[in-house]
Amino acid sequence: MEFELPLFPLNTVLFPGMPLHLHIFEERYKQMIRTCLEKSRPFGVVLIEKGAEALGPPATPHEIGCTAQIIQVEPLEQGRMNIVAIGQERFQVRSLKHDKPYLVGNVALYPMEGENATTLARAGRRLRPWVERYLHMLADAGLLEFETEQLPGDALRLGYLGAALLQVPTEQKQSLLATEQAAAFLSEMSSLYRREVALLEAMLALGVQDEANTAPFSLN
Predict the structure, then answer these.
(1) CATH topology of domain 2-109
(2) Helix 117-140 vs helix 182-212: angle between axes, to the nearest 10 degrees?
């Protein structure tokens, strides 16, 4: 079933369950967020396909996005605000409307096609050690503070968190968000993490070598 959803084109990809911090300063988005707050409704986050994020005509978004529910608002001067929202559900943009200062989409929810619980749980068990290894390596390098005990037990939630944490191009994250099958999504996540762990190991090994030569350790 289609419904109207105000859209916020951004240079980021939001996954279900993940937080989003935004500074709202443009008049069109002040209006949009006020409307969402008044009606207790979410807005949609969509990655920009063409155009600019701010101070210009509405950008052309990718087709698959994620709804965002506002959970915290910090009012600022001149109507500006800082907000925190949480990603909720994937959606597909069916058509766009341009009759408001901000973009509005006719959208339909787009849940991943699930496999049976056993298949997804197995895929989650394959992914989890790679995510844990990746996070431990970042923590040991002082690049991230994250307790692996906080990792969700649910396979799909683990996959979404893993996708949000990965340092890969936004277009690649968009491709992950748009994956139709849950098992395929988790399988791709495992492949990506195996690659990223190998790359990170090589970078850290180089850093240790540099440190032995009295140069400061850095991944930059």
Answers:
(1) 2.30.130
(2) 20
